Structures are given as structure tokens and as C-alpha cells.
Fold ATP-binding cassette domain-containing protein.
Amino acid sequence: MITLKNISFKVGKSNILAGIHMELKKGKVYGLLGPNGAGKTTLFKVLLNTIEYKGEVSKEDNHVPIGKLIEYPASYPNLTCAENLKLHASYADIAYSDSIVNHLLSVVGLPDAKHKKFRALSMGMKQRLGVAKALMGNPKLLLLDEPTNGLDPMGIKDMRNLIDQNLKSKQRTIVISSHNLNEVSLVTDTFLFMRDGKKILEMDNSEDIYLFGNVQQMPDNLNVKKDITLLKDNKKETYFILSESHFNKLKAMNDFVYRDVEKLTLENLYIKLMSSDLMEMKSYV
Ligand SMILES: Nc1ncnc2c1ncn2[C@@H]1O[C@H](COP(=O)(O)OP(=O)(O)OP(=O)(O)O)[C@@H](O)[C@H]1O
């Protein structure tokens, strides 16, 4: 597990990241969602330890190997896939052999492109070579920044299958940053919504319909963190967000009083979160 405590990053007077708390668990896939400029890439830089931030990142093991696919997957155009992988490994000081290179190219679905020059690859193949690079050293934390950027529908599906079938592992944490909500929802266990450098909501990806409403009264015997996610706006109104099945259980409780319940798709929820001052309540404490 990787724990982020009160992470902040400032440039001049601007708070690029502000008071982020997060726990990234082994075996889980996290979908980092948020508009342009929300701080997603900066959060990756914190995890990669390439910027000077405030706060604490603690890891179970001090040497968690990290793999990353960040922005456009640059490689040497006149070198082959295998040569690019080997060069990447030597730059990153990662041990490699011909069999590791062959294995990785086969994991990412490029077994026949070993001797192909990078410049001759399609965008999807370039992206997959980028993933192969990220997998060198068998990372326990894998950061994928917009992995489907620039891919056609077939390439997007291939990337989804690659993540689902070959990258997920009980020993690995994967964080995917994406603007493609539907796509990310197909591979993610937990959504991390970011806005203005803050994590505003962490939510399990359980169903595609969510119930959103205003809380008038909370039941006494409710374990809030486990049973219900509460959000607050700056007028101190409290809201809840629940999966439909969970809501059906909770609404049977007499002392749970609510109003204005609406069904939200992931897209509607995203728009609501990004166009309001709503924030998960535990972020307030
Ligand atoms: N070193 C820096 N100096 C100045 N501004 C910075 C620096 N790093 C990040 N920023 C600013 O911080 C904000 C967050 O940037 P970041 O790239 O993390 O956002 P993002 O959520 O990844 O956006 P996108 O979805 O467009 O990739 C942006 O407004 C960016 O311009």
C-alpha cells in the first residue's frame, strides 16, 4: 500500500496540489479523473518523486519499482522495438535480457514487431511499446497517463484488454489518468475525482448508476465511511452518493431522511462534481 498524507505543491502563489490524502492499495486499479489542470500529472510526479512537494508519501516497501507511461510515448524512431526497450532499460538501470524483452513484447501484443523500427509503428503499437517500457523491472506501481490518447476504437479496445488481462496483478497498483470516463470505468476498481489540485471524491466503481440526493437526517447507527459517501458544499449542505442497490437498503431506515434524489450516470456525476463546490466530507476533517 502507498499512503499519501497531506500532499501539497505550490508554484509561486498557486496551489497546484492542496492537501491530498490517498491510500493506493495493492491489486487495485484507480481511475484518476478531473478536468485539464486539475493536477493529475502533478500527482504522478509526486509518486515518481520528481518534484519537491510538501507532505508525506509512505510505502510498505522503500523500493517500490514504478513504471510509467506519461504523455506521448517517445522513443528513438530509427531503432527497433527491441533496441528501444533495451536502451530504456539501460537508462533506467533496469536489468534486462533478450528473453525479458521478448516476453514484454509478447505481453503487450507486439511479438512480431521486435525488429520493426519505431517510426514504422502505428499509434496503437507505439502506445503498447510505451507500456512495455513501463513494465520493465516488473513495477509494483504502474502509472498510465492517458493511455488511450490518440488511439482509434480498435486501439482503445486493445489497450483495455491489455490492462485487464495482462497488467492487473495482485501485487501491483495501477493508476490510470483519463478523460475518457466510459473507458476508464471498464477497467477501474476505484475512481479518484480531482478538481483544483484537490481530491474531491473517492468512490468504488460498482455500478453505472449512482443516486445523488440531499441529506435531511442521518441514521444514528451508520458507518458513514463504509455505508454512505457524504459530500458537502460551501453552504454546509450535506449530500449523499450511493449505488442504486445500496440506496435501496438505506432508504428502508426510518431515520434516514433525504430529498431531491436523482439518478446520475458517471458522466453526470463528473459534471456535477466539476461544476460545483461539492467535496467529500472526510476531506474536510
Ligand atoms: N512546474 C510548474 N510550474 C507552473 N505551473 C505548473 C507546474 N506544474 C503544473 N503546473 C500547473 O498546474 C496545473 C495542473 O497541471 P497538471 O498537468 O498536473 O494537470 P492535469 O490534471 O494533468 O491536466 P491535463 O488533464 O490537461 O493533463 C496546470 O494549471 C499547470 O499549468
Q: What stands out?
A: The first helix runs from residue 40 to 48. The chain has a mean pLDDT of 90. The pocket of adenosine-5'-triphosphate is lined by residues 11, 16, 34, 36-42 (CB under 6 Å).
